[in-house]
Amino acid sequence: MSHAIGHVTWRAACGLVLLACLVPCASAAAVKKWSVLGPFVIGKNELDGEAWRSSNSSELGGAALKKFVAQSGGSVAVSWPEVDWQSLVNGVGGHEILEWQARAVGGFKTDGSNVHISCQGVTSFTLDDSQSFVGDLYWAKLPAHVVKLKAGNHRISIRLRGKLQTQFACHVEKPSSKSPLLLFGDSFAALPDVISSPDVPRGIQICGDLGLGSANQDPDRWIKDLRPVLINNKFLSLAPEQPRLHLAPGQITRASVRLEVLPDVGPCKDEVFVDVAFEGMLGEERSRSEALRLRLKCRDVTRQSFVFTFQDADGSLQHAAAVLPWDTEKSPCKGACPVLVTLSGTSITARDSADAYKMKFNDKDPEYRFGIEGAWLLAPTRHGAHNWEGPGRRTALSALAALPQLAQRLALPPVDASRVVVAGHSMGGHGAWLFAFAHDVLAVVSSASWLRKDQYADSNKVLLHDLATPKVEPLLQGLLRTAEAEFDVEAQAATVAHLPVLIRVGSQDRTVHPWFSRRMYRTLLSEGAKDVTLTELPGKEHWWWDTAKPNDGGAVNDPEIRNFLKRVLDKEKSPSSLRWRSVVFGSVGGTLRHGLRVRALARPERRAEVSVELPEKGPAVLATSNVVQLQWQRSKEWQGVQQVLLDGQLQSLPQEAVFHQVQWCLDFGTWKVCDFAVAQRHQRHPNQAGPMREIYSAPLCGVSADEEGEKALQFFGNMLVMTGHGVIRLLSSQEVEVHGGQVTAPASCENLLVVGAPENAVVAALLANSPMAFDSSMLSLGGCSWLRGENLAALSLLPWKASAKEPRLALVATGTSRSAAEALTMLSTPTIPPMARQPLTHLLPDYVVLDVEETRRHGPGGYLAAGFWSNDWQRLPSAYERCTPRGDRGTQHRSHRVAEEL
């Protein structure tokens, strides 16, 4: 069918196709017949509109309803050979135009019993146009979803996305009679190594907890008080204390198992097998999973890398690889050893990242020498398209924080986490810059790196071909981009300009063109860099194992890099200059740099700067921009400094014998030591920095008081697992209480995600001191009010103090029960494969108000308001608001400007 089909006709056509493509719900039966409407243009961002909701017209040459049949195994191949793709590339410019979206619909029939449904190759799918489920985007064996359906016909609808072509598959099968508690491993497992060496106590040690995929495949009941069961193991036993876990109906997560080495066991040779099961209470019954066999590798730490696990900032269990320092008579570790943090490119495992640091001194060496002379090598990783931004950067920082404790526990060489060099290749080269902006490092090595994702090749262009583009005015676009400002490497080049920097790239690199390295080199020089080197290696492409001769270290460990590392690691931690600058955006405001930490910005959404000069005599000179709270901490750089001239105002530093740090606050133009009254004017604690993705800055719990919200949280949690092996603890409504306007939750909850209507007690308590005000008929914010129709929703960061802990963050999704749940689900669904970021981590400021249906059609063009909160949690004047009367088809509310702004 080559002619266009109108919007109404498309829906009718789908109904006719469904009658023909129903399949019986046999075991593991693939949904075979599909009707697909497309192709439509699509943007490169996480959220874009669905063209078929508004029109059948397509810039790609018209939309057609086509029928596709699954191949053997159930996969469906979708392509559009009738589209002249080359002419589009030539005429429009750029490979971005090769990406398309389409709507696929398939059907099946059930007898009224529960069914298992799974779809591979897609981020999500919707059943009967009512509930959304997480797809297995990477074909990684994510468990199926158990759904209770009425007898009769049902349909699956999918928002397809592809580049030229794509493949997907959906299967429907009857559940077995086995336990609804399921364990799974494969790529979802985080498995530490078992290590041995002459210095390791008791012969062997295990390097952290096990992380296993777990799922509750009961659609109605919780599985509570899960406990691991270890089966017939000769090396390991369960530790007495185990992490407590409950699984909500339909929830998928990663569970932790804490093990101990049995006494008097000998060293292991190649691997240790561990058989693990889980059991918990399903109502009044005890449910037990089938056992899962895990294979732990045995590693000799004197000559091999090893993998360890650690708790990330968001509470998830992640893993990294490490290599002990190797010492020579010329370069021993003096006391604790410094660390080289190395960040890998896309799809590289932690072990492969660490093992890339190998070389031989001569051809007669029988074995490779792994690691770094005189320093620990640390290679963190995290599944998914983090780009070492957001949660990915926190993973790298968490791995570094965990390494000293691990070394101490395993009696390995001590770690000096204050003396760090960061290096990376490709995506990791981008990450090396970002890590250096967030942590006080000695030097940076960045190889084959790009500077900003939306400028690199055809990846993630912001509002280029998006359906939202004509609907997003410059102010809103600026706010969305502001949410990503801290990942713009060039904009923060001044922060590392005083450090030794080595930039490397192959002259024939066509994956990440040398242009990016040349640009960063020029930018650093323009910022006053003195110790920066750019090396373009003749004839080399993106990766190489040997630079000048066999086994010489290659792309990440050849003589140039080794000599650079030796030079910078031999130095004490001190700036190479008596002058430096720090550029700060948003959540990086907490970064400690040479004894100074920016604690609060005057305008949280704006760039801030601190410049420092340490003269030989007299006070240190500090100049700030957009900073209202600054912390000084005594360090070697400040030896002998007694006073500071802070923005022209003289401040005295405290004596070391009294205390080691001081905080200054800008109080009506005057800098002074912070007291309680002054600090109260900066109510937004550094733990409460935005934007929205900072909800992952601490362990996160989610709660809803209604069924729709619970399903949205289930979707959100399962999407966390699929996209980044992240976790959220889902709570029953009885576990969160309100007393005297204060929300209390279990002690393990540090940040909170709440879904529900404004009348819900928890939502109401969190909104009580917010400028976002709801009454029976209106949502008001600043100078705008919107009628509380069925499509109005809002997502907002709000202050919350966890029980007996420092102030933290709550994220509230509110509106009607339905619109709040739909808004969270929609904004948590990445539309850009395969680089699907974790939910709510891209192009989202502190808050958004949206029309759900309009946002489905126009992406962020459906936002009614967006912005950042001030330090006292008030609306900033930079906010975007749209509140003139609208008559757009499908909207369910009117809006108006209230009297105070007329």
From TrEMBL:
Q: Which Gene3D superfamilies does the record match to this protein?
A: alpha/beta hydrolase
Q: Which UniProt keywords apply?
A: Signal
- The signal peptide, as residue positions, is 1-28
SUPFAM superfamilies per the record? alpha/beta-Hydrolases
Q: What is this protein called?
A: Uncharacterized secreted protein ARB_06907-like
Q: Which organism is it from?
A: Cladocopium goreaui
